[in-house]
């Protein structure tokens, strides 16, 4: 009954957010509609309320004990709001029903406080009837007192048996408030302990129990259940995201990634890809939020550069040979050039005869001729359209190709001869 008083402080702030003409869906008996709406908005989930028509009714004689339906409504609502506030959560309809049931049941017990106080007051009245004993006071032997004169011998209103009856009635009325105060405290304690026991035993309030215990003692085993429940809910959300991702893979005809791949991909996506000899273009791992992205391999360092060294800024992405393979071959060519006793003519002859030389593939990086570019665009029309936006295809006869290739080779030899003739130190 005292819980309703403690909720008055918070109602002031809650009522500021509720319009004056607010009306609840299910009105509570003898309750202020505006206050009811404020409490429901703050502590109950959407659509939840206290159904007083489903609760146990008061005893027919409860009115003689000073209890009424308005007090019952305040008591039940105060207990529901108190537990919601202690748990720091909005209650579901099932949880509200459980708390309301145990509150209404225990409120009926409070009706027995007055009869119990009257019984104890009658016992004390009967025990001190001989000397007209009052609580902490005994009038027998005093000059102004006489059992047949009320209230005093000097100023008498009633005499005889009427005065005796009034004296005993006054004695009972003096005892009753004391015992009523004691029994009220006793029954209030019984009601609180009974409500607490019902909350612990009722499985419908497991979520409320865990939340309250977690706030009181977060490190206790039962107090950690609320945190575990929160973690499980987060894991359920993560599982839902995983299911959605797997479903996306199935729609495009790809197998879903395994958990090991999921754990490995985040680490790989943060590590730059490195080029290795004999491998194709390095690709980044699959990013679940986007499509696959092709990454350029890191440039390999070399103390010497070949005569036709690649430049990362001006690399031809349309080349059918990967950048890593070209750099590996250029590193081998540089090693051959540095070998003693090998002339430039020997190096040119080896490169011309080699099946993997850049000339045989039509790949000269930054120095490739316009003819080789036309050949590459003609052989890869899709890539040409993607890079340059051109959709034209060209066809040439085999004789023209051989003739043009011979001209390019002779021009390269002539350029090499002119370039080396300036130094003269390497020609013998």
From TrEMBL:
Locate the compositionally biased regions of type Polar residues. 229-241, 267-282, 367-379
Per the record, which residues fall in region Disordered? 214-428
Per UniProt, the ranges with Low complexity bias are 294-307, 330-339
Basic and acidic residues bias locations = 380-389, 399-420
Name by which UniProt lists this protein = Uncharacterized protein
């Amino acid at each position: 009954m005292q819980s309703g008083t403690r909720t008055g402080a918070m109602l002031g702030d809650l009522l500021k957010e509720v319009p004056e003409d607010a009306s609840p869906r299910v009105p509570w008996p003898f309750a202020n509609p505006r206050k009811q709406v404020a409490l429901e908005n703050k502590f109950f989930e959407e659509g939840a309320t206290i159904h007083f028509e489903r609760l146990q009714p008061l005893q027919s004689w409860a009115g003689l004990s000073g209890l009424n339906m308005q007090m019952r409504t305040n008591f039940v609502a105060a207990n529901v709001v108190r537990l919601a506030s202690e748990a720091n959560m909005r209650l579901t309809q099932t949880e509200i029903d459980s708390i309301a049931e145990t509150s209404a049941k225990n409120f009926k017990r409070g009706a027995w406080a007055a009869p119990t106080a009257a019984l104890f007051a009658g016992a004390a009245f009967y025990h001190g009837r001989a000397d007209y004993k009052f609580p902490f006071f005994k009038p027998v032997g005093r000059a102004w007192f006489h059992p047949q004169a009320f209230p005093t011998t000097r100023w008498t209103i009633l005499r005889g048996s009427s005065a005796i009856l009034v004296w005993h009635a006054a004695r009972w009325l003096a005892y009753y408030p004391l015992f009523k105060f004691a029994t009220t405290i006793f029954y209030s304690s019984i009601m609180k302990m009974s409500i607490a026991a019902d909350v612990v035993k009722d499985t419908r309030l497991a979520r409320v129990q865990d939340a309250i215990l977690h706030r009181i003692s977060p490190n206790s085993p039962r107090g950690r259940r609320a945190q575990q429940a929160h973690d499980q809910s987060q894991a359920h959300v993560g599982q839902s995201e995983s299911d959605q991702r797997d479903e996306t893979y199935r729609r495009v005809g790809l197998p879903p990634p395994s958990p090991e791949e999921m754990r490995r991909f985040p680490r790989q996506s943060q590590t730059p890809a490195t080029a290795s000899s004999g491998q194709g273009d390095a690709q980044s791992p699959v990013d679940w939020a986007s499509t696959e992205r092709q990454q350029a391999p890191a440039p390999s360092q070399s103390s010497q550069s070949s005569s036709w060294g690649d430049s990362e800024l001006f690399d031809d992405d349309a080349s059918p040979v990967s950048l890593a393979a070209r750099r590996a071959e250029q590193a081998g060519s540089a090693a051959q050039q540095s070998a003693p006793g090998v002339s430039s003519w020997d190096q040119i002859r080896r490169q011309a005869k080699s099946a993997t030389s850049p000339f045989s593939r039509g790949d000269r990086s930054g120095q490739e001729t316009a003819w080789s570019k036309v050949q590459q665009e003609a052989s890869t029309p899709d890539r040409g359209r993607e890079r340059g936006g051109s959709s034209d295809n060209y066809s040439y006869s085999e004789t023209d190709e051989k003739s043009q290739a011979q001209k390019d080779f002779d021009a390269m030899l002539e350029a090499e001869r002119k370039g080396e003739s300036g130094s003269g130190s390497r020609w013998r």
